[in-house]
Write a structure and sequence with these properties.
156 residues; Lipocalin; ten-stranded antiparallel barrel; mainly beta; 71% strand; 3% helix; globular
Length: 156
């Protein structure tokens, strides 16, 4: 997809405005064959200090596993962002246009008793009623290993 194709799409998505405060999310992970492998719920608390948006994400998986990821997202201006988290390798790079945002990053993904490094190509699309839809392709060595789909709801 080309991010510029969304420049006139509404409603306009601004990452730091959407995630400031409380957000809830529900997600699915499908393997490369389309088999549903896992579902999860996420409670997210976003705080803004100058040009850093902190997202404290608390995950509850369908098998009872609990996890947490804390993103530190730097707002660069011109609809561009960088982000870090403990399991992100280096920096995530993000850019938005219209109602869309694209994140690209490498993640150390826990799989059973090991960790593998995968590439995420994450696309978010803001819809009406504060609903944000996300689709991320997960790749290893250039091959798709799965897809993560998440629906976010901004809590006022």
């Amino acid at each position: 997809m080309n991010l510029n194709n969304f420049s006139n799409s509404k409603p306009t998505f601004t990452l730091e405005e959407y995630f400031l405060g409380r957000t809830e999310a529900w997600g699915l992970f499908h393997d490369r064959f389309g088999n549903l492998k896992r579902t999860f719920k996420v409670d997210i608390q976003g705080t803004l200090s100058e040009d850093i948006l902190t997202l404290d994400e608390k995950f509850v998986y369908d098998d009872g596993e609990l996890d947490q990821r804390i993103w530190k997202i730097k707002i660069l201006g011109n609809k561009k962002y960088t982000g870090t988290a403990d399991d992100v390798v280096g920096e995530a790079l993000g850019e938005s246009e219209g109602n869309a945002l694209n994140w690209k990053y490498k993640l150390n993904l826990k799989v059973k008793d090991s960790t593998i490094q995968v590439d995420f190509d994450d696309w978010m699309f803001l819809q009406d009623r504060n609903i944000l839809m996300n689709r991320a392709e997960v790749k290893k060595w250039g091959f798709t290993v799965g897809v993560v789909t998440i629906t976010f709801l901004k809590i006022n």
